[in-house]
Amino acid sequence: MRRVLVRYKTKPEAADRNQELVEAVFAELAETRPDGLKYGTVRLEDGVTFVHVAFIEGDENPLGQSPAFAAFQAGIAERCDEPPQAQAATVVGSYGVFG
């Protein structure tokens, strides 16, 4: 299983639009319910920092088949002050969040 954490900062004027696009991804996922994916996103207190966490089973990322995720990614560079930084992650501990 791959575990990926992505963090970025949007421009203040783009933060709400970014959240709308993220919410559209989750609405689509709720409808399509792809196997092999656990995914979550938070918006930090500063209002412009977003953190996405994805646990992906298998070789293919189900988000790659998502039209809503493609729409989210399409303008990410223009919405960001700090571009997305993706890193592999290791779960050190979890109480009901990652399991």
Average pLDDT, rounded to a whole number, is 94
CATH class: Alpha Beta
Main β-sheet, in a few words?
A: 4 strands, antiparallel
Gross morphology is: globular
State Rg.
Answer: 13 Å
Strand content: 25-35%
CATH architecture: 2-Layer Sandwich
Helices and strands: which structural class? alpha+beta
Strand order of the largest sheet: 2-3-1-4
How many individual helices?
3
H and E order: EHEEHHE
Low-pLDDT runs: none
What are the SSEs and their pairings?
Layout: E1 2-10, H1 15-32, E2 37-43, E3 49-56, H2 67-74, H3 76-79, E4 80-88
Antiparallel strand pairs: 1-3, 1-4, 2-3
Task: Give a verbal description of the structure.
30% of the residues lie in helices and 33% in strands. With 99 residues, it is an alpha+beta fold. It has one domain: Alpha-Beta Plaits, CATH 3.30.70. Helix 1 runs antiparallel to helix 2. The model has no long low-confidence stretch (mean pLDDT 94).
Features:
99 residues; alpha+beta; Alpha-Beta Plaits; 4-stranded antiparallel sheet; globular
